[in-house]
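Quick note —
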Amino acid sequence: MDTGLVAKTESSPGQVVPLLEARSLGKTFGHVEALIGANFQVLPGEVVALIGDNGAGKSTLVKLLSGAIQPDRGSLLVDGVEVTFAEPADAQRQGIEELTTMLVLPQTITAREAGDTQRLLSQALKNEPGRDIVVDASNLRQFDSAALAVLLECQRLAVGYGKGFGMRGVPPKLAALAKLYGIDVLLMSDSAVAGEADLNAPAFASP
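Predicted structure written out below.
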């Protein structure tokens, strides 16, 4: 697939070339101008925060940078080379990826821990700004049917907040228990969600 490498920008000797740069990006959805003339750059060694009011275009810009959508105007450059991302995989090959929020379950969720664990997860679901939530169950070692009740509530809350919901690292015994109760669909991971999870995720310890 053609990733659209076009041209290299001219730089003066000693000038630092941005690792990633957006120039005058614009995006329109119907009659709505979601982004107008956005400029953005990340220099080597920088950690950059993107901050703005609701509706300022932060999510649109991130989706443009990560190839989820394509700009109507402007250009993207990686290491001084203009690129076109037709899909997220093109951006990923350049080391650019939009990460979703991942919540890591504790080692134990039985009836004793379920209430406190649910409160922690519910608060995290409410506060996290990501469009998708992934629950990582790979640490889970000791559990009973209360763990399924916690996960069902997490899924309900995620849907209520308009977020995608996915699972990863589900222990076989938990999958078998879910099947026994007829809710195994709960643990079926959506690869579009779980495959993009942030590995630097918040973990929740059992009380």
